[in-house]
Amino acid sequence: MIKRLILTKFGKFTEEVLDFAPITIVSGLNEAGKTTVFDALFDTLCRPPGNTREGRKLRSRYGENRQADIEFNREEINFEVSEFMNLHAIRAGDINIEMSDQSDWMERVKSSLFSGGIDPNLIRANLERLASTQGTMAHNRNRKQFESDRDQKKNQLNLLKTKRSNILQDEKQVARQEKDSQRMERSLREKEQELGDLKKQLNIEEKIGTRKELDRILEFLDEGEKIENDITLLNAYRDNQTEVLDKLQRDIAKLKSDQRLKEAAIDISRTDVENMENETKDLIKKEEKTRAISELAASINEKIIVFLSDPPATSTISWNKKLLIMGVVALLCSIAVATVTESSVVRIFLVALGFALFTILGLLAKTHKVAIDKEGRQRFFEDLVSEWRNSTLDDDRAQWQILEEFQETLLSKKNAYRELKEKLNRINNERNIKLDQLENEKEDLIRLKQNLQNFVEDEKKWLETRGVANRDEYLANLTKRRELALRREQRKSTLVAFLREKNLEKTQELRRFCDRTLREFDEEGIPETGKPEHEFVLLKRSVDDKSHEKEDISNKLQELREELREKGGVIRGSLGGIPDQIIQEESQIKKYDEMIENNLLEREAAELAGEIFSSVARDSDAALVELGKSLSQEFEEIIANSGQVTVSQLDTSSILITDAGGTERSFEDLSSGTMNSFLFAARLALAKLATTGKSLLALDEPFTSFDKYRLDNALAMLKKFYDENGWQIIILTKDEFLVDQVKELFPEEKVKEHRLGI
């Protein structure tokens, strides 16, 4: 079963991977790429040669550099072009079957139905007539006539021999010469026998040489087949795809480096967190003591603040002389100006203003001074220092000269706790941030490891797909396949020479010729090894010598016979034409014996062959009837009330279909929809005959001419075909209704859909 189709560069698809299931649907509008997917399947499953019509068509559509590959779950599947297009692929507008095709799949159907495509019933009838022993049959009448004529000739021969014996009884000399002639004839026969034995030995030695040559040819062909098989096994190494593997390995190396860096960063972050936690523990240990010192410092500082807000002091009054002088001057000036002023109101105003300024400046000139009680302040300072040192909380034994220095120390102790808390909070915040960073880095590391694992799996899958353990092995297989291809090319000239020498055209014909000749040699008992070369040369020389000796004896015998003819003239004169008549009668009797023997042999052979073809005829008739029943059943599942299908030959022109009214119609008289329905049924029936085991069906818009009723029946028949045979089914369609029907018809886990976009 197809696992996935990899469209590296094929038409509109680039680096596209389509996964396949037992039922795979490729749907989309026109121009979405369904035909391209079908052509890619056809190209990868059939690999049509570039010089064929299909190969040229693919090259015209997708170019020389098209690249697609296919992966299988278990065993690899491949087809010849005719088998795929006639049995395993149904395309819109091309549902017909080329039933007259002579490809391998058609031969498999024919061999299962017709025993080679012949009519065994006709042959059986003819053979039964030839094997009959009835006297009325022509061959039996001929044999009886031959026997009667032979008996008459034997009687005449006996009479002639008796007459000749009586005439030659007194011819002693001629008899002796005839004995000499017979002796020479025996010698000639012996020489011929010896020559025949030598020629037989020579023939055997020549056949041994021929056998060695044929064995070398078969070894050559076996080596060629092994090279082809090895090339086929190494098809995955047809193109160098190390760039993909190199990229994977570079990605893996980078991810491993990133992983090491990330692990180092995690170790640093973990160390930072541990250091912060240790520092936090130390600060927590100090916190209690620092808090007590801070509280004592705050308490004492509060006392200082209260003391400084109202310290013990004495109050005195002092005058600012400058302000007093200014007040007196202002008063005098206002009086002086008022005395020279005529208006009484102005004078009153100026005098009042002068007194006001004098009063204000006088008040401003008066100052109350508070003098601090230094002795009381010193006693207060000493009491606080004593209280601080008696607390024994702080080990600081600093000497303070004034209260302000002591207060600064208290403030620093108070701030120390606040700074400790702030530092503790800051460290906690930094630790939390570092913990978050550590977690993020761990998550990043997990993702890196997952990505690394994915790339490692991809690398492993890439290598496993090509059946190798590492890059070196892949390169070794690439090199091996190139070397095998080069060897195949180098061997072509030798193969052509072998074919030309044997006057053959195809390699299989050469193999059959070699196998057949070697079987004949085995039946003749020809050994595999013969004489050494020098003995073979001596044998040929012996044959030549014996031929010359035979020729010498034959010449001498001929001279003796001439002499006998001359001496026996008188005897012949008395014998007349008796010797010639005897020879003629013996020749006629021999011919009659041969004719009678041939007649008997033909009858026995006909009887035996008749039994064989009778069995073949029974099997072939049953197969044709069974095919007709199968087509009828499949056809009826699509078209209700369809009649019987009669198959006389494996050809659409010889198929008759009986309709519901009982009328027989030829295939060409059916409507286009009915014809396509029948052909769809025939496709399924013939596929089961021509294919053993599981295979696949590729349906490219197969039901465009079907109405809803026939479509439902066809899909039901397709479901039945899948349930019974387990074939993988691939459907390419733009019909969303058909997609929904297929999804409803087959189990959800068996269906995989790819929706293509324009």
Characterise the protein shown here:
There is one protein chain. The protein is elongated. Helix content is 71%, strand content 9%. It is built from 20 helices and 13 strands. It is of the alpha/beta class and 758 residues long. The model is unreliable at 111-119 and 619-624 (pLDDT under 50). The longest helix is centred in the middle third of the chain and has 68 residues, at 242-309.
Mean pLDDT across the residues is 79
Q: Could you tell me the strand content as a percent range?
A: 5-15%
Tally of helical runs: 20
Radius of gyration: 62 Å
Relative helix content: over 70%
Low-confidence stretches: 111-119, 619-624
Number of strand elements: 13
Structural class: alpha/beta
Spatial separation of the terminal alpha carbons? 28 Å
Largest sheet entry: 5 strands, parallel
**Which strands sit side by side, in order, in the main sheet?**
5-11-12-3-13
- Overall 3D form: elongated
Structure summary:
The chain has 758 residues and is of the alpha/beta class.
Task: Explain the layout of strands and helices.
Layout: E1 2-10, E2 13-19, E3 23-27, H1 34-46, H2 53-62, E4 67-72, H3 81-88, E5 89-91, H4 104-114, H5 120-131, H6 138-168, H7 172-233, H8 242-309, E6 313-319, H9 321-339, H10 344-365, E7 366-372, H11 374-390, H12 403-465, H13 471-501, H14 507-524, H15 533-567, H16 569-575, H17 578-638, E8 645-647, E9 655-658, E10 664-666, H18 672-690, E11 696-700, H19 708-725, E12 728-733, H20 736-745, E13 751-755
Parallel strand pairs: 3-12, 3-13, 5-11, 11-12
Antiparallel strand pairs: 1-2, 1-4, 6-7, 8-9, 9-10
